[in-house]
Amino acid sequence: MSHESLGTDVSVGPPSTRLPADHPDITVAALLGDDGGVVDVRDVDALRSAAAAHPDSSLAWALLARTELDGIAEDGDAVAADAVTAYAYARVGYHRGLDALRRAGWRGQGPIPVSHPANRGFLAALLALGDAARALGEVEEATRIAEFVDQSDPTAPAVLASGVPVGEAPATTGAE
Question: Domain 19-160, what architecture?
Answer without folding.
Answer: Alpha Horseshoe (1.25)
